Amino acid sequence: MQNNEYKTLDDFLGKDVKSGMVAIVGPPNAGKSTLMNQLLGQKISIVTSKPQTTRNRILGIVNDDAYQIVLLDTPGLHKADEPLNIEMMRVALESLSEVDAVLFLVDVSLPLPPKALAKQREELAGYMEKIESPAILVLNKVDLIDKQKLLPMIESYAKLFPFKAVVPISALNGDGADNLLKEILELIPVGPRYFPEDIPTDATERFLAAEIVREKVFLLTGQELPYSAATLVESFKEDEQKKLITIHATIVVERPSQKGMIIGKGGQKLKQIGTAARKDIEALLGSKVLLKLWVKVKKKWAEDENFLKELGF
């Protein structure tokens, strides 16, 4: 029997609210993923202290009775010459033309010398030319600097683009997040929700599990090794009777020596990565998880377009 309760798509989606897409962009390691997690009230994007942790665009959904804000966490803006980095930049720059508003995030605590700071702002000015939506300048980590230094920074960054607002925040502890939310709501339109009210992201559980494994590789290995590593979930099976999710995942590296570094003496490093990842995946999925990890060598995987497609680019 046909249900005629909903006469239009808007009826099905519910009444109009403040609803819009908002891209979070900025230099690498500015705190974009931390900010998205803070606004969501839960961890969706992986976070490390190393730049260029985020490779794909991650979507997070902030739901309220009066609004829905769809946040896009993007890779850091940087000069790119390798295929992987080029794809990361394509993802970030495409986001600038697809949204209702842009949050341009900078880390004001970075102790850059004047020449380096001037170079960074020159690069940022080039990226800002691609912004087609109203933008908010978000000054992150203001809790780590002398407040007297803040005004000159605001004046300097404000020259780069006609920002609709400037909001100082600490993405880590949430200071200023409420003010930022108010400014976002001033910029996004009224309309139907993009997504149901009970989901925080459109990312699949497989993708999020792979990202968590990659985060642990970043956190638990040397300075350069994480950039040579990728993660793929080969199998994701739920056993409702046992209340268990079994995940088979592969960590892909470029050289045999890197494989040895990830496995570690007696397999201890891989075990450490697996234990840390399993705990986070269990917290995310609300279920017991059996996580099995393998390490595979694939030379120059970051230059292989077919493999990059497997990673979601």
Automatic annotation (TrEMBL):
NCBIfam families registered for this protein in UniProt: era, PRK00089.1, small_GTP
Protein name, as recorded: GTPase Era
Binding site for GTP: 26-33, 73-77, 140-143
GO molecular function terms attached to this record: GTP binding; GTPase activity; ribosomal small subunit binding; small ribosomal subunit rRNA binding
Membrane topology category: Peripheral membrane protein
Region annotation G2: where it falls in the sequence: 52-56
Boundaries of every Era-type G domain copy: 18-190
Membership in a protein family: Belongs to the TRAFAC class TrmE-Era-EngA-EngB-Septin-like GTPase superfamily. Era GTPase family.
Keyword Lipoprotein (UniProt): no
Positions of the UniProt region annotated as G4: 140-143
PANTHER family membership: GTPASE ERA (PTHR42698), GTPASE ERA, MITOCHONDRIAL (PTHR42698:SF1)
Keywords attached to this entry: Cell inner membrane, Cell membrane, Cytoplasm, GTP-binding, Membrane, Nucleotide-binding, Ribosome biogenesis, RNA-binding, rRNA-binding
Entries under InterPro entries matching the protein: G_ERA_dom, GTP-bd, GTPase_Era-like, KH_dom-like_a/b, KH_dom_type_2, KH_sf_prok-type, P-loop_NTPase, Small_GTP-bd
Ranges where the record places region G1: 26-33
Region (G3), start-end ranges: 73-76
Region (G5): 169-171
Subcellular location as annotated: Cytoplasm; Cell inner membrane
Subunit structure: Monomer.
